[in-house]
Amino acid sequence: MYRIPHLDIPPLVAAAGTVRLPGSKSISNRVLLLAALAEGTTAVHGLLASDDTEVMRAALVALGCTLRDEGSGVGDGDGAGSVLHVTGLAGRLAVHDAQLFLGNAGTAMRPLAAALALLAATQGGRFELSGVARMHERPIGDLVDALRPLGCTIDDLGQPGYPPLRLRGERGGHLALAAPLQVRGDVSSQFLSALLLALPLVADTQDVVVEVVGELISKPYVEITLNLLARFGIEVRREGWQRFVVPAGSRYRSPGVVHVEGDASSASYFVALGAIAATDTPVRIEGVGAQSIQGDIRFVDAARAMGADVTAEANALVVRRGRWPLTGIAMDCTAIPDAAMTLAVMALYADGPSTLTGIASWRVKETDRIAAMAAELRAVGATVEEGPDRLHIVPPEPQAWRSATIRTYDDHRMAMCMSLAAFNGLAGAPSPRALRLLDPKCVAKTFPDYFEALFGLVQAAPGAVPVIAIDGPTASGKGTLAAQVAAQLGWHLLDSGALYRATGLAAMQDGVALDDEPRVAAIAAGLDLRFGQGAEAGRVWLRGQDVSDALRAEATGLAASRVSSLPAVRQALHGLQLSFARLPGLVADGRDMGTVVFPGAALKVYLTAGAGERAERRHKQLISKGIPARLADLRADLEARDTRDMQRAVAPLKPAEDARKLDNSQLTIEASVAQVLAWWAERGPLQGLAPR
């Protein structure tokens, strides 16, 4: 839904309900790699379906692994109900030459680089690893510097110390494993994790020791690595956080079944949501809780320190607003680097300044997150000071909150964090401010359905859900126009004509006369109708049956015209139509959307074209489907329907007084969409907002 250039979020005022988290990215990609390296087949439950896991999956398939999906969860964001069966390579290369594109997934690039470097050096091979432009700016030199002394041949294909890389070697090569490997720990814990995941492949006859140089950051992520290694048969010994021993004779063995817990970093957004806006009914977060193995579960302690009321169950968190406003904090965030970003946005709602330290690793993430967060917090009105490893945030005074275009920097966490700034009315902003998030699709990296989940929990300020009403006569093209405008904005779509066509079709199926007003109204009131979403967009189910084609039939259209003239039917469908006005917005098309159903719509468009032009369009449409039709008959029918619709006593077809009229007789659909979007830019809640 959100493959769109921007997403507008109106002012939000409350939150309540239950969200099921997608699987942990950190666990998902580690499990994928471990299962691929192990003997046997591993059934992975709850695997995250996201950009990062997709590039890892594609890489493993290219390397000769067998991946088989069971269930329908792949691609739905949380993997609920799906199982991925991974048949591993048992530590032996099946493919010796491959070019792997790994996007911007550090959890794929770093461990694959380590594993393939060691395997190429001992079994022979040539592998090139690359990613998007930002991945080529993310350092990997400390990992490469740890591998080269072992005898791994690693070529820099770009700037030294950064991807892309070429890993190569000859069959039968030997590695220098007697001396401890040394790796820096103060840039990214992923370098140490990558070595720990790869070294069991070559610890055949002797222990292999890894020593950390400097302070190890993000220790909780290394704990995840050690926990999962144990699940696959590798018991790494450690001396504090400075020395790790991979035992001789290590060999990966599949545990058979692995369950991926929900993502604790993603939980932080909903913990913050509850702390900010769950005043009556709590926000319940399922998939992660007191038994989590992820370090970011410690975000709960930070949220409590700011005032959140959090109850931790074994596999769920229940969050309510506690203190309000929240309390400003000073905190070393070394242990929760990803989740700490959410604290920066919570700081907007605090009673005083907050200082976050220990976040130097933000500089080398998907973007420079310290600089990015400082810029976007300032954009909504905060005063922010940044340092090499810190942010100092002074929340806006109530009158200082601003509407803003939020840049997301192709960084999923920037988009998810900053969406919470839409609750500014709760901080006392005298005129609650809408937000525009650029490039919202970036959330697909870890949480493709984030905005659907968010909007399923939150409530907008009264009247704040924007509606664009598009009315017009039969065959004016309003359905096509509305669908494309909705797709451009990432909004919901209401084809009101489909409701009347479904009512007429259901009446005909039941043998009910179309002029039997009470019985047809009863059918409308109990209409069992479902509209397809995502890949099923454009499909409609009535009473569990796919009626997409039947709704487009001429007979159904004539039935819709008859039943729509019945006042009781229109009343029965009115509430259903209103229910479509959900966040982030609605585009509604019909004949009375702007005059009757949504008289307060922010933008009303009356679309028309001459009867001759409309008849030609309908004629081409029918002929393309192999349905014979006479142009003259179609024109006569359209003119008769226009007259009937304009003369009916209830909600006659006519433009709303404040509607923008659009004659599309000579316009392409692209031009018509562009015109409606231009009108929306003039009238919407973010009109006049300066681009960034």
Detail the topology: elements first, then pairings.
Layout: E1 6-9, E2 12-15, E3 17-20, H1 25-37, E4 41-45, H2 51-62, E5 66-70, E6 83-87, E7 97-101, H3 106-123, E8 124-130, H4 141-147, E9 153-156, E10 165-171, E11 181-184, H5 189-198, E12 208-213, H6 219-231, E13 237-239, E14 243-246, E15 257-259, H7 264-277, E16 283-286, H8 299-306, E17 309-312, E18 316-320, E19 330-332, H9 340-346, E20 354-357, H10 369-379, E21 383-387, E22 390-394, E23 404-406, H11 412-418, E24 435-438, H12 450-455, E25 458-460, E26 467-471, H13 478-489, E27 492-495, H14 496-510, H15 517-525, E28 529-531, E29 540-542, E30 545-546, H16 548-551, H17 554-563, H18 567-578, E31 586-590, H19 593-597, E32 603-608, H20 611-624, H21 631-647, E33 660-663, H22 669-683
Parallel strand pairs: 3-16, 4-15, 7-8, 11-12, 19-20, 23-24, 26-31, 26-32, 27-31, 32-33
Antiparallel strand pairs: 1-24, 2-25, 4-6, 5-6, 8-10, 9-10, 12-14, 13-14, 16-18, 17-18, 20-22, 21-22, 28-29, 29-30
Helix pairs in contact: 1-2, 1-3, 1-6, 3-5, 5-6, 9-11, 13-22, 14-15, 14-17, 15-18, 20-21
